[in-house]
Specification:
The complex is a heterodimer of chains A (252) and B (418). By secondary structure, chain A is of the alpha/beta class. Chain A has helices spanning 10-22, 51-64, 67-78, 85-97, 109-131, 153-163, 211-224, 233-239; strands at 2-6, 28-32, 43-46, 135-136, 141-146, 168-173, 178-182, 187-190. In chain A, strand 5, helix 6 (153-163) and strand 6 form a beta-alpha-beta unit. Chain A has eight helices and eight strands, in the order E-H-E-E-H-H-H-H-E-E-H-E-E-E-H-H. The model of chain B is unreliable at 405-418 (pLDDT under 50). Chain B is globular. Chain B has helices spanning 3-15, 88-100, 117-134, 151-160, 173-179, 185-208, 233-247, 275-290, 295-298, 312-319, 333-336, 344-353, 361-366, 371-374, 392-409, and strands spanning 47-48, 54-55, 57-61, 106-110, 140-144, 163-165, 220-226, 251-256, 326-327, 378-379. Chain B has 15 helices and ten strands. In chain B, helix 2 (88-100) crosses helix 3 and helix 7 runs parallel beside helix 8. The chains are: A alpha/beta (252), B alpha/beta (418). At the A-B interface, helix 5, strand 4, helix 7 and helix 8 of A face helix 1, strand 1, strand 2, helix 2 and helix 12 of B. The complex binds iron/sulfur cluster. The site of iron/sulfur cluster has 9 residues of chain B, from loops.
Chain lengths: 252, 418
């Protein structure tokens, strides 16, 4: 058993794969960050992320799985669920060691796990696409804050760019402290200093004059469409888990 | 904008529209290629009502004034309620502003009948036209066609809307006659027939010329109210089947009757909404559209009602024990789809995955198969075979004993599809 220490990035992970094949390693463990003391009796290897090596592995991988397959691995990595990178390693090794494309080998535990991870990520991405609520600011930018469980902001780019081509918008991940901004031409990731008067919760001061009106209309609408004789709270909560409520206009 | 007045109108006209269930936003493919606003491509539920239904569209009536007197409808002429009407511009503004804030996927616009069919239809079309041409709006638009509207207006509607629907309201002409004496099923069938041909014609043109205009790309749908009249499930599903086959409908919606009015022709005000029945009808509908079931396999003269305590696929399996067990590692997709507890996605996964090796129970479970039900109807690369000498009735009891809460206690309206 070898413990590989890497930086936790996707490139780092690909470099790990390079190392596994270069040194012909069997069973491995992964650890991010620096070496622990207790590693004395273990076989420990620090892997320094190397772009050239990562690129080589990626190129090889692309010959083994489809481009969607590669994207799925990337999305699964983005989830940032601790311990899951090891399953990605298992998947990639399975892909390299097989003569045929293994993407649909759902009987294999790594393939199955990656498919589960992707489903979890997709679900949250989809929920963000549904539950993001923009608020119109005085400068005509539409602002939304989010706190997803997984780091899905990068995966939201395409959807919102296609959807809102004629309005400026900003989606800000409060948890991870970065945002995605569209300026009518392109999107970019940005950091904002929310200290002092700029607190994310304080956007209200810069609402455009019609913003409260539409928020109010929307809340009204939401209540009007409810059919009381069909009330089903359990089902309601399954669809909109409570943790999303604080960003939903109709639920505030 | 007079905020107070708009709020009041929205409350009245959203409230009156909420009983129409045909409100999904999927099935179109309108792209944002004009640097305009929005795209209609994938159905997104932006919110859920407290009864658990998806909110994806701004669903309102243009007006709840109506010259007709349908017994099941809150907007009927003789019901003493507050009336209101939106202007075309008001609907446009609400739609755009809700869409920009990501509250909705688009608009579902229906209406009471103002003066006559064409007068009303013309206004619905104007809303859609304004959204598309003046605001470069590519979001989803579903217009309810007014029965009896002219072909010219239907044609224009098709050019701007993603989906059009003509509500049948009741599964049989006799039911309609009883509850909606002003309406005639022929007035509903005529625009459906027109739309069917127009959609086919435009689809063919689109194949030849990329630039040909879209025409109701999400097709047409209809709605039937269930439980207001005494039709049985067989009549309901036969009718749905007829309209799927003859008018290329994309969806038939089943709306469990919500008692809102006192009328000797209707179920009493305190009658429960038939939610389980509604759910079963959707499941049966799903079997016809995606699982290759023939309507006669699901209901028949001797079996005119769907089982309320088990889903119709399990019902079929229990009536047809001779077709099982299915060997998961060999059977073709169609047969795997018939195994209770195996859904569309897992069936496809199974067929892909077994190329790599035989599958056992563990693997099937991970793929999303609900073994609780499936185990009685299949064999795979595991030794056990659960059926032993169980009869259909035994199996039903076992399954009910372990999954009852899910089906009956919560009385859910959600489509819990296998
Ligand atoms: S025509 Fe439509 S709006 Fe008018 S009463 Fe009948 S169902 Fe209601």
């Amino acid at each position: 058993m070898t413990t590989l220490i890497y930086d936790g990035t996707f490139e780092g992970l690909l470099t790990v794969i390079f190392e596994i094949y270069a040194q012909n390693l069997g069973l491995v463990k992964l650890q991010t960050g620096v070496e622990r003391d207790g590693a004395l009796f273990e076989n420990v290897l620090t892997v320094v992320t190397d772009e050239a090596r990562a690129t080589r592995v990626l190129k090889g991988l692309k010959q083994k799985v489809s481009s969607t397959g590669v994207q799925r691995l990337y999305a699964a990595h983005l989830a940032e669920i601790s311990g899951e990178d090891l399953n990605l390693v298992g998947y990639i090794r399975h892909a390299f060691d097989s003569a045929i494309n293994i993407e649909e080998d759902y009987g294999n535990k790594f393939v199955m796990r990656v498919s589960e991870l992707v489903r979890m990520i997709r679900r949250e991405k989809h929920r963000m696409e549904a539950f993001i609520r923009f608020q119109k600011l005085t400068d005509e930018t539409y602002y939304a804050s989010i706190e997803p469980d997984f780091n899905v902001l990068p995966l939201l780019n395409r959807h919102f760019k296609n959807r809102y081509a004629d309005q400026k918008w900003l989606i800000y991940d409060i948890k991870r402290k970065y945002g995605l901004y569209y300026d009518l031409h392109d999107t970019q990731f940005i950091d904002i200093d929310f200290s002092g008067n700029n607190k994310a919760g304080n956007v209200m001061v810069s609402f455009s004059p019609d913003e409260p009106i539409y928020q109010h209309l929307w809340k009204n609408y939401f209540h009007s469409v409810n059919i009381i004789s069909r009330k089903n709270t359990k089902l309601h909560l399954r669809h909109i888990p409570k943790r999303y409520w604080r960003h939903l206009t109709e639920k505030i | 904008m007079n905020e107070e007045r708009i709020t009041e109108k929205l409350n009245i006209l959203a409230d009156a529209a909420k009983y129409d269930v045909s409100c999904a936003s999927s099935g179109s493919k309108r792209k944002n290629e004009n640097k305009g606003l929005g795209n209609a491509s994938n159905g997104i539920c932006h919110s859920y009502t407290e009864d658990g239904r998806c909110v994806s569209l701004l669903k309102i009536l243009l007006t709840n004034h109506c010259i007709f007197d349908c017994a099941y409808c809150v907007s009927r002429k003789n019901n003493d309620i507050k009336r209101a009407a939106f202007t075309v511009q008001e609907v446009v503004d609400l739609t755009i502003n809700f869409y920009r804030r990501n509250y909705i996927e688009g608009l579902f616009l229906s209406s009471g009948i103002f003066k006559d069919a064409d007068y009303t239809m013309e206004r619905l079309v104007r809303v859609a036209k304004k959204l598309r041409t003046e605001h470069k709006f590519n979001g989803y638009i579903h217009l309810k066609s007014i029965p009896g509207a002219s072909d010219e207006l239907m044609n224009e509607a098709g050019l701007y809307a993603d989906r059009l629907s003509v509500n049948l309201e009741l599964p049989t002409p006799a039911g309609l006659k009883l509850l909606a004496p002003d309406k005639d099923q022929r007035d509903m069938i005529k625009p459906m027939g027109y739309l069917k041909h127009a959609i086919i014609k435009h689809t063919e043109e689109k194949k030849l010329f990329k630039k040909a205009p879209l025409f109701a790309p999400a097709g047409q749908s209809t709605q039937m109210i269930i439980g207001a009249t005494p039709e049985n499930d067989s009549q309901v599903l036969q009718s749905a089947n007829y309209f799927y086959k003859n008018f290329n409908l994309k969806r038939v919606y089943y709306s469990g009757y919500v008692p809102v009015l006192t009328d000797s022709r209707l179920p009493a005000l305190n009658t429960a909404v038939p939610m389980v029945r509604e759910n079963r009808l959707y499941q049966a509908d799903w079997l016809m559209r995606f699982y290759g079931f023939n309507v006669n396999e699901i209901v028949s003269k001797s079996q005119p009602h769907l089982d309320l305590d088990i889903d119709p696929k399990l019902g079929w399996a229990i009536r047809n024990m001779q077709a099982f067990p299915v060997d998961i590692n060999k059977a073709d997709l169609q047969m795997i789809l018939r195994v209770p507890g195996i859904g569309l996605l897992s069936a496809k996964k199974i067929v892909s995955a077994r190329r790599f090796g035989k599958l056992n129970w563990d693997q099937l479970k991970k793929m999303g198969v609900s073994l609780n039900r499936a185990k009685y109807f299949m064999i795979c690369n595991s030794n056990e075979f659960e059926r032993r000498d169980l009869t259909g009735t035994n199996i039903k009891q076992f399954i009910l004993a372990t999954s009852q809460s899910k089906y009956l206690k919560n009385n859910q309206s959600q489509l819990n599809l296998f």
